[in-house]
Prior knowledge:
Elements: H1 5-34, H2 42-63
Helix pairs in contact: 1-2
Amino acid sequence: MSAPSGRNLHSATTTVFSALMVIIGAGLIIRTLILGGGIFAIGVVMGLLFVAAGCGRLWVARTGPK
């Protein structure tokens, strides 16, 4: 018996938004460093937080309870 379509939609959107968070975070880091920001610049810190949150969401979505 397969899962309801609503659950599949939720899983797919979670994966897409989590991947977008990782991409946005990487973009923040790259842009901040290109514009001369240091390692503790707000763009780098926020980018790292976005990447960590996106990776965490992806990890939980893959290994969490089904």
